[in-house]
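If you are new to this repository, start here. Below is one unmodified record pulled from the training split, so you can see the exact layout before writing a loader.
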Amino acid sequence: MVENRMKSRGLGRGLSALMADVNETTAPVDQGGAPRADLMVPIEKIQPNPDQPRRRFDAEHLEDLSNSIREKGVIQPLIVREKPGDVGNYEIVAGERRWRASQMAQLHELPVIVREFNDTEVLEIAIIENIQRADLNPVEEAAGYRALMEKFGHTQEVLSKALGKSRSHIANLMRLLNLPDDIQSLLEEGQLSAGHARALITSDHAKEIAKRIVSEGLSVRQTESLVKKFASGDLDKPKKARPVKDADTKALEGDLSANLGMKVAIDHKPGGESGQITIKYADMDQLDEICRILTTT
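And here is the target side for that same chain:
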């Protein structure tokens, strides 16, 4: 019966069809409403997908899942395919976390649903399954979307419909992959949020601002404000220090100001012979007085 079902599915399915094929709720269910397994397979005859793109499995989450499996068993069967060229052994298509947790729980056999997939479809499904995981960080999720688009030619619209994600969500996450690697690392480690990272995408000072986000605990709004300040040049252009005037220059300014009754500033270039005098007048009468003085022969 399993073999006939496998043959009837055929290959070359589109993304939506693959999603339906892996969705365990489409399988027959038992009286308790759980998907009904095709087979119970000894755990040593089940192997993980060697091309599984996910390499990190949170130990704490696995321990929690293992405890649940010890108490309730494996409720949702694994999706597997017969291992190519190795009859009687199976390769995981979806459900590697359950397989790992079941090993920790020392189970001897696991419920499986057998599907027929080629190597390309197995990789595609593995990426999709990873994207749907709740604990995926933004960089991992974005890399999954990029892989689906680059490896399999899917568009953002196709991904949006098949995965139930908005196109803007997919597009915004994929933009994070344009950030420098060290900022992506901060994002993966949880030191930056996706909101922080999006604010940094267009900044020429992303690394410097990222350091301040981490050290000062800046909010997303504060980060956006800081990005704007850097872009306007308020922060990235060092202010020139005003030269300190010597006592003689200050004394001369005081004498001229007293004689004219107006504020006089002398700016003399250090080490040079030139400079400028600035006279500030308060009204037109003072301007007329300056003109009179300058034109008197």
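Two things worth knowing about this chain: Residues 179-239 form a domain with the Arc Repressor Mutant, subunit A fold (CATH 1.10.10.2830). Strands lie at 39-42, 46-47, 78-82, 90-94, 109-114, 263-268, 275-280.
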